[in-house]
Amino acid sequence: MVTEPATAQPLPPVRRRPAIRLLRALVRDRIGAIGLVLVVTMTLAAVLAPLIAPYDPTAMSNQRLAPPGGTFLLGADEAGRDLLSRALYGARTSLSVSLIVVTGAGIIGVVLGLLAGFFRGWLDGVITPAMDVLFSFPTLLLALAVVAARGPGTENLILALIIVFIPSFARIVRGTAMTIVKEPYVESGRAVGLSNTRLIFKYVLPNAVAPIAVQFTTSLAYAILIEASLGYLGLGVQPPQPSWGSMLSSGKAFMEMSMWPSLVPGICIMLTVLGFNLLGDTIRDALDPRLRGRAGR
To answer: Are the beta carbons of 134 and 74 closer than 8 angstroms?
Structure first.
């Protein structure tokens, strides 16, 4: 029997067109469609806030704790500021901070995960224990520690949250990379002399897009919650810039007189986080072959 030489071209992975599957899932899945509508609505509200906000979010008036209706559609806070305008600008703050945080953490985490999962060896021995140490801390506690050490402010908040979210991306990509490097098409690529860089960008990284996309979406929801929590504690975005967390904090002292200063930002946080979670579930069901068929529930 003649043995074939190991010079055949590497077998490419199957192209599954994840974008088409995701689009079909969003069309068929009412839950996912609701999540998409919520996310798009909040995103448009944040982007168009300067155009649709009826008042300056920092402008004060003598109508303190005014109920909804009349001059202010959703009422006014303890300083007479329009709650609708502050909620719209708070969406800009929360969504922009969360997007910067998750994007930054995603890039760093993906690079670290690829290095650890593809090359293994001493790189894996250094990166994985470091990620395990960060992952062992409660997320909010770690963010609190970083912000408390560096002081409140938007820049320090972003830095703290990036550190918090790096391990999640690194662990997922590492596990995915360790599985993909064992596939026959990767072994064939090594046999014909493809460089490690080409193997990573041609085979490993494209096959890791699905778990990265799911993690990105769910991390956005979690980042919004943590940003609001730190804002509630006074360690997030500082006044006079509005944020949902600081609105909740300032409104809690006036709950007996008016619930609206706390209710409005609370509903905004709930709807935004719900939208990202529902959308993340649909993306997971559409892109994960093990869960395929559940997206049309």
So the answer is: no
Residue 112 exposure: Cα atoms within 13 Å on the Cβ side: 23
Residue 60 vs residues 45, 56, 81: alpha-carbon distances, Å: 22, 9, 5
Residue 37 CA to its chain's centroid (Å): 17
Do you know the residue count of the chain? Answer: 297
Residue 154, Ramachandran bin (φ over 0: left; ψ between -120 and 50: alpha; else beta): alpha
C-alpha distance across the termini of the chain, in Å = 52
> Taking a C-beta distance cutoff of 8 angstroms, is the pair 274, 38 a contact?
yes
Distance, CA of 105 to chain centre? 9
Q: Rounded to an integer, what distance in angstroms lies between the CA atom of residue 190 and that of residue 20?
A: 31
Structural tokens at position 143: 């963010």
Prior bond of 67 cis (ω within 30°): no
Positive or negative, the CA dihedral 197, 199, 204, 205 is positive
SS3 state at 69: strand
Q: Are 237 and 246 in contact (CB under 8 A)?
A: yes
Identify the three-state secondary structure at position 72: strand
Q: 236-278 pLDDT, tens per residue? A: 888 778 889 889 988 888 888 889 999 999 999 999 999 999 8
Question: What does pTM read for this prediction?
Answer: 0.83
Alpha carbons 26 and 45: distance in angstroms, whole number: 22
